[in-house]
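Retro notes, item 3 of 5
We never archived the inputs for the PMT complex last cycle. Fixing that now. Sequence and ligand:
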Amino acid sequence: MQRLANKRILLGITGGIAAYKSAELTRLFKTAGAEVRVVLTPAGAEFITPLTLQALSGNPVHQHILDPEAEAGMGHIELAKWADLILIAPASADFIARMAAGMGNDLLTTLCLASDAPLLIAPAMNQAMWRDQRTQDNIGALKDLGMAILGPGIGDQACGDTGPGRMLEPQELAEFCAEQFANESLTGRHLVITAGPTREAIDPVRYISNHSSGKMGYALAEAAVESGARVTLISGPVNIDSPARVTLHSVNSAEEMLNASLNQLESCDIFIAAAAVADYRPIEVADQKIKKKTDQMQITLVKNPDIVTTVANSNNRPFTVGFAAETEHVIEHARDKMNRKGLDLIIANDVSQPGIGFNSDDNAVTVIQKDSEQRIPQTSKSQLARQLISLVAKAYETKN
Ligand code: PMT
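Structure as it came back at the time:
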């Protein structure tokens, strides 16, 4: 259960007599050190009061999608992004049917549609409703979408029937939730991640840079936090907010990024270089804005230090991961980079493909290690980051 420490759990409660058990579930999550926010459907509120859940979770209970006051506190999309995990317990047959149909007609279904977090469903209903072919088809559809179905248990039911349909006990549900954070656990590890572009000054108002948005590196930082790691993010200039629970060091140039990285090395277990560092910088930076006096001008560039190579070759080197942004012979060039830079693992992305790579919300990569290659097809950078962190954690464990 200690894997739940500092995790953000969104608990959805729909209409069913088992809703009373969700109070105990909330208490178990809190005792394990998780942050809990409860979303209560109108039917759920017939079985348990928001006040009870507010007192147990220590947070206001979210009930309506069109509630200006709640939206001002934490909007529904913000709430969807906030969650490390969503558990619906109890999940009624009606809720399951609406989820299977992809509906977003209340706060809870909308949140589930809008979130990238793992979704766990604990059905609770009468045994005949559970056995009904339509319910079974809906459950099959949710499983196909990658959702985990927890239970239901078999036994006596509140209506007097006996059979499958009982919600699992709170302790069992909490343990299932803790297991979600098990196999990629980076608890106690310090990850340092570089992200975004660097800016190499020409004069006080101009610079050389590239199209990196920082989205990939920031998604990795978020996924690493979800896995229990302490995360330091060293970021070039980007337009995205720092993920919560991450220590952010903002830098501009490659030299600043190198110094910030070296400052972290003493305690760093895993270093991931997702930044698109400018390979060259102007040899001189003009003190004043350069005037437009000639038809042509030349700027002499000098090579920047290679940050990830410096880290990989330092004393006490951390497990070192690089990215390779390539436009041709992607795997061959990436493997060559991994060897030249002395990396443990490299993540190759084909930045010539539209819709992935620089400044897009999606990416598709091949994870290359000495004796293996693993292709991860196009998906959101958040989803991809979770898969990458899991692979990096396994490779790190194998090596250490
Ligand atoms: O930021 P986004 O818009 O989300 O885009 C993500 C990304 C495409 C920038 C990212 O997925 C990516 O591929 N990052 C690495 C880009 C890059 O500079 O690749 P490279 O092949 O030039 O460099 C290879 C590796 O060396 C990288 O890990 C890079 O961080 C590192 N490097 C490069 C030069 C340098 N001077 N120092 C370095 O550490």
